[in-house]
Amino acid sequence: MHGTVEAMPNALVTASARRDSSDTLVLPPSSQMLFDAYLAHIIHDWSRVVAMLGFCLVPVFGLLDSFIVPPGLLDEFLMYRGGATAVILAQYVVIRNTPPGRWSLLHGYFFSIVTGGMITQMTRDLGGFDSAYYAGLNLVMVAVNIFLPWSAIHSAVNGLILISMYVVVNGLWGGPFTPALLVNNLYFLSGTLVIAVAINRSRHKLIAKEFRLRAELQETNHELDASRRDLQAARDALWGEMEVAKHIQTALLPRNTRLGPFEVAGVMHPASEVGGDLYDILETPAGQRWVAIGDVSGHGVESGLVMMMTQNCIAALVQDGRARPPSDVFVSANAILRENLRRLRTNLYVTLSIMRLDADGLWMAGKHQDLLILRARTGAVEAVPTRGCWLGVVEDPRPAVTDQFVPWEPGDVVLLHTDGISEAQRGGELYGDDRLAAALKEHGNRPPDETLRCMLDEINEFQPHQDDDRTLVLVRYLASG
User: Which residue ranges form the domains of the chain, and what is each CATH number?
Assistant: First the structure.
C-alpha cells in the first residue's frame, strides 16, 4: 500500500530533486526509475483493493436494480453483473499472483473498462442518455482515481475512456434522448473527471515528494550508520592506542627493590587509561639512592606525557655522574620542563618531591604531599611537611626551593603518597592524612608489598569509585646494609 515500508526501494536517491517552471517535482533519471518502481508497488497493491471492492460491490448494487429496473430487464442485468463480477474476481486472482511492474497500472484501465462497460450497457437498455444510471460511471471514475495514485495523465485518459464508451454506445444504440439531459450528464461526468485529475495531480506530486524525503532519510541513516561505524573504529583504535600508552607507562615504573640498607616499594593506580602520577626509584653508579614522587595536574594523555618527561628528566639528572643535592636536581628539572611545557603550549605543572636516601637521614626538595614516618623506636607516625614550590610554575625556583633533612633510624618506615590517596572521598568526607597515618601505623611493620596492598584495600573500600590517580611509595630503613 501507499504507506508500506515494503514498497520502499532499497537503493538510495543520491541526487537532489528539482522543480520545473510548472512547480512539478522533477527527479534525476536514476531516481525517476526508482520512483517508477516504487509507484508500481503502490498501484499494484491498491489495484488489488479496487478489484476486491469491485467483486463485492457490483453484486450488492444489484439490490438497486430490483427497485429501479423494469422487471423484464432484471435477468439481463443480473447476467451483466454476474459476468462483470466473474471477470473482476479473475483479475483479483491475477493481481495477487503477479509481481508489480511497469504495466501494473493497466489493472486500473481494465477495471474501469469492465465496470464502465457494464454500466454503459445498462444505460443503453434503460433508454440511453435519458437514463440516470450513468451516475454509476461517476462512482467508477472516483473509485479508480482515488485508490490508484497514478499520474494526472492516466486519470484523464481513464476518465475519457469511460465518457467515450458512454457517448458512443448510447449515441449509436441508445435511442431517442433529450439534449438537455445529455448536456447535464456530460457536465457532471466531465466535472468528476476534472476533479479526479486535479486530485491525482496533487497526490502524485505529494507521493513523489514523500519518496524523495524517505530516500533522503534512508541515505542519511546510511551515512549516520557509516559515520557510527567510523567513529566506533576510531574509538577502538584510540582505546587500543591508550592501552599501549598505559602499558608503556606502567612498564616504565620501577620495580620494588632493595637499595643498600633500604627496601623500597611503590604502586600506582591511574584513574584513567594514562595517569598523571609518577614515582621513581634510582641508584646511581656512584652509589647514591634516589626516590621521587609527583603528581601532574590534570588527567589523561597530556598529563601522562608530562609525567614521562618529568620522570626521564630526573633520571638523567641524578645519573649524570655529579653529586647533586635534591634542590639542584629540582632546579635543573624545572628549567627543562618549563621549555617542554612551552612547546606543548600547556599550563600543566607538577607537584614533586625529590629525595636522596642517606644512612643518617633523607634529603628532599620540592613541594608535594606531607611525608609520613613510622618511627620504630616509638611506634608513632610523624608528618613532615614538604617545602618549596611546584615544578614548571616559576622560571627560577631557587629562592623557594631548599634542601630539607629528615633524620631516621634503622627500622623507620617512610610513606610517600599523592593527593588521590588523602583526598579520596565518601559522602563529602575526605580520607585524609589522619586515616592514612593510622593505616601506616597498623600495617607498616608488614613486608612493603603487603603494607601497600593493605593500605590500598582500605582506601578502595572507603571510595570504591576512583576519580584520581592513586600512588603510594614506601621506604623501609633496614637494620643493616
Answer: 5-224 (no CATH), 256-477 (3.60.40.10)
